[in-house]
Amino acid sequence: MSETSDLHEQRKAKLEELRAAGINPYPSRYEVSHTIGALTTKYANLPGEELQHLREPFTIAGRLMAKRLMGKTLFGHLRDRTGSLQVYARHDTLGGDLFQRVRRFDVGDFLGCAGTLFKTRTGELTLAVERIELLSKTLRPLPEKWHGLRDVETRYRQRYLDLLMNPEVREVFVKRAAIIRAMREFMLARDFLEVETPMLQPIAGGAAAKPFVTHHNALNRRLFLRIAPELDLKRLVVGGLERVFEINRCFRNEGLSTEHNPEFTTLESYMAYADYADVMQLTEELLCHVAEQVLGALQFGSQGSNLDLTPPWRRITFEDALVEIGGFARDVLRDPARLEAAAAAHAIVKERGAFEAATAHAKLLAKVFEACVEPRLIQPTFVIDYPIALCPLAKASAANPEVAERFELFINGRELANAYSELNDPLEQRRRFVEQARQRSAGDEEAHAMDHDFVRALEYGLPPAGGLGIGIDRLVMLLTDSASIRDVIFFPQLKEEPRLGAELRGESAEAAWSNSDEHPHV
RNA sequence: GGGCCGCUAGCUCAGUCCGGUAGAGCAACGCCCUUUUAAGGCGUGGGUCGAAGGUUCGAAUCCUUCGCGGCUCACCA
Known about the structure:
The chain is of the alpha+beta class. It has helices at 7-20, 36-43, 48-52, 91-94, 96-103, 152-157, 159-165, 167-189, 230-238, 276-294, 318-324, 330-333, 336-345, 357-372, 426-441, 452-459, 472-480, 500-505, 509-514; strands at residues 58-70, 73-80, 83-90, 110-119, 125-136, 193-194, 200-201, 213-216, 221-225, 243-251, 263-272, 299-302, 305-308, 314-317, 381-387, 403-411, 414-421, 465-471. The protein is elongated and about 90 Å long. It binds one RNA strand through helix 1, strand 1, strand 2, strand 3 and helix 6.
């Protein structure tokens, strides 16, 4: 063995040894007879004597996660996607050469093992290895077996190690998949059609947000990554797809935080002949279905709160919430000057920009709401009837044209869903777009962009419809008790890792930074 | 962008207040050990202390700037 202490070099030397012995360290396939989970569920409870009568051969494959060399025997644990099983190799069974090779396998290597089952003195189901093969040689050591991988930065940058070493991380993502599956099943059962609409849009509409910009070479056209699928989904409803939903990504070119990732996943749905009250019903039923499927309960803890999703959920108007929960007097809320003073007392400042008086007032109300009401909405609460100026795509209430038929759902102090009765009056929609365009040209980068085709589509007729958007990442955070959105997204967006290329090439950091193939985009 | 905290061996961490030869456990390497399981025993190697400057006889430690990350405030749905 080489004398070097560099673990990476040591393993490369082992790799060469194997090749020199005529062994392919990266073979193509391995025939597996059982998953480890199948073996343990079937045989872990059988007494040892009965295991000895089993004549069928057991063949398993997995990653070596622990290795205990004991004289002329070796114990290890092999892990596959379904579980982990102890394997036991003996010098007298395998023969000298093979045993020598086996004892030099590293934790992390993928192995295929065939043999018989037995139980050790401590009663652990174990595979007595008769044949063993290397399936993939690792060149880097895994993080430590006992403490695992703790460094948060490494966990996010090298999620594969996080998944490998921290079982609870795997659980979160398994649960994420279960949540999405439950949502999909629920929507399909309600006769919604699952659709996919473009990620690349010529006009980034459907929400108030800054988009990512890109360019299509062949079309020589500027395109945006979508900030919402809303307008395309409503076009589909115009086209007669009366119930549609999409589970997919949105992109917003804004700040990052524990609740914001530049790309995030939403469920968005549209239901013809329904209004926002129907959608509230739908939302309640959907989230209860998900909680029951995934957690098996409507009560659960998350981030220190005990939450109860048992319907019906509280419904409160935007203004009542500001009065009852925010503690503001109703006449203060309705008077722009007094509201501004009250907001200033909470260190809330009015947004800059040339807004119409009603819009400026509504925007300030929204900020006050966010600061003084939102964090206090712990149990599921539908906040309804938002100022119309905040909702350029929502239908005004028949009873009160000042407010939109809109709700947002809050659980544990976070916005989880947003929905409204869709505005389907094309002329009114055009007026709203014109006002947004005016704000846009006055400097509001997040005002909605005019979308002439969308108005044209409405002119062909959109049935009354209730739309819904649910932030799936935040829902997953809620149901997995995660503090940060980065814990529920496999590869959260981070700054470029310094010196990575240098490490892999053995170059200096300076050389890495100046090496142009590191940055093909510049 | 502001504030606070972190960055030391492959991993997990001491050492920083109060400057004086860079440590431990796991992992690795060698030897012993044929039912172990954080196996055990004996031995060995392993570090640009995130980077660059500065102060000092002397810096992981003090100062400055920068990088990356976390939390938080601001901004932002």
